[in-house]
């Protein structure tokens, strides 16, 4: 992550912590977990809302990069919509 992006995020979190006691308590609890797979709904211009499965892969190296792979369920409406989108952009 670039330092500028980190600074902006730090400022945003600080602002939320100042305004909300609930946010401050949740943030300080650090009650988070890594999610390696799941499902996301994404709004795609010209296609609509797609429901895609995803998996994450931690990449080796000191940078801590993560690869996110999104994919539709084969044969479903979202699969057909992505194929149509890909064909229209060729």
Mean pLDDT across the residues is 82
Main sheet attributes: strand count, strand direction, barrel closure: 3 strands, antiparallel
Distance between the terminal alpha carbons, to the nearest Å? Answer: 32 Å
Number of strands: 3
Class per helix and strand makeup? alpha+beta
CA radius of gyration: 18 Å
Shape: elongated
> Which strands sit side by side, in order, in the main sheet?
1-2-3
H-E order: HHEEEH
Helix content: 40-55%
Strand content: 25-35%
The stretches of 5 or more residues where confidence is low (pLDDT under 50) are 1-5
Give the helix tally. 3
Compose a concise summary of this entry.
42% of the residues lie in helices and 28% in strands.
Description:
The protein contains three helices and three strands. By secondary structure, the protein is of the alpha+beta class. The radius of gyration is 18 Å and the shape is elongated. It starts with a helix and ends with a helix.
Question: Which terms summarize this structure?
Answer:
elongated, 90 residues, 3 helices, alpha+beta, disordered N terminus, single chain, three-stranded antiparallel β-sheet, 3 strands
Secondary structure blueprint with pairings:
Layout: H1 3-19, H2 21-29, E1 37-44, E2 48-58, E3 66-71, H3 77-88
Antiparallel strand pairs: 1-2, 2-3
Helix pairs in contact: 1-2
């Amino acid at each position: 992550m670039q330092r500028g992006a980190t600074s902006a995020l730090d400022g945003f979190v600080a602002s939320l912590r100042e305004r909300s006691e609930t946010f401050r308590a949740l943030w300080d609890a650090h009650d988070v977990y890594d999610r390696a797979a799941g499902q996301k709904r994404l709004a795609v211009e010209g296609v609509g809302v797609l429901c895609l499965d995803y998996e994450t892969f931690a990449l080796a190296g000191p940078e801590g990069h993560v690869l996110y792979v999104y994919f539709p369920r084969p044969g479903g409406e979202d699969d057909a919509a992505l194929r149509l989108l890909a064909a229209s952009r060729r």
